[in-house]
User: Fold these one by one.
Assistant:
Number 1:
Amino acid sequence: MRKISLIGLLLAGAVALGCGAGSTDQGGSGISGDSGAGTEEKAGAKVAKVGDAVRDGKFEFTVKSVKCGVRKVGTDLLGATAQGQFCLVTVNVKNIGKEPQSFSDSNQKAYAADGTEYSTDSEAGLYANKDADALFNEINPGNGITGVLVFDIPKGGKLAKLELHDSLFSGGITVQLG
């Protein structure tokens, strides 16, 4: 019983420390995230779309393209096959901060119009990216990467929006896809 309480206390402490890890430092131009709801939910706020530069914490994101209906990524010898269909989201990520910042594909989310949430498929991402930049990468200030986020969604499904994060605990910024 004591071990379980100690583990719970340690986990709670890690979560509390982690909550400060995701910054919401804004600044500069572009649409910025905050610790609350996505851009489209704010009264009078501009809705971010594909091609718009948007910011969450230390990262500026630009979604370049979205392609769904992909059955397989990689080569015939090495690749991943979708359970449903892959949606490939090409995104630029630039560090706008003053310190190195780690980018992880697992912090990014996609949503269907009905609110169904999808996580990235990191294994498929290995095959969709030539050098795995979009999976996990430390980006130095002023530098950026371009990579493909891979979401495995049901056949016939569509993505309505993305929620992009500079870290696990950041507020995120929403980009409408339709």
Note: Helices lie at 2-19, 122-128.
Number 2:
Amino acid sequence: MQCTPIHLSGTYASLEPLTQDHLSDIQQAAADGELWNLFFTSVPAPENTRQWLDIALDMQKQETAIPFVIRDNASGKIVGSTRYFKMEPQNRRLEIGHTWYSQSVQRSGVNTDCKLLLLTHAFEVFNCIAVEFRTDYFNHKSQAAIERLGAKREGILRNHVIMPDGRIRDTVVYSILAHEWPGVKKNLQYLQNKYAR
């Protein structure tokens, strides 16, 4: 498990390494729905995008993350971002997070495709024994999406993170274990096929 940039391509979406050149693409993707106005997400506002991008790339430099941009294969546009992070090669586990999508592709096949790509690589290439997801207690849409994948809710970390606005966030933790992956993969492929109809 190495923190080197990788490309992952699927049916509806492609994951490409995040670079400094993606600044305007990220700003445009976040503007689709003005996602920074959702208090329970970490989507960068236009004036904070440079800082957001620098932090993501610094995480990669420190070998704790692999940040991606998400490209919608149908339109060719960048429609969001996600990353592997909290990567622990010695424990063969990582977290998938910092994920957001432009409003126009939410509830489409893009999220299912991205999760299938990321989880397949995590379990079948990185040989992970566990993959974790975390989300804000108030982000009910995210919790529903994570549960739809087949991840199991482990619990809530109370007073877990102090947010930029001073709010103290409770974090809901989910995971998928290696022995669960074959069933989760089958579920994701089933969901993916539904979008093709």
Note: Strands lie at 8-9, 13-17, 65-72, 78-88, 93-101, 130-136, 152-162, 168-177.
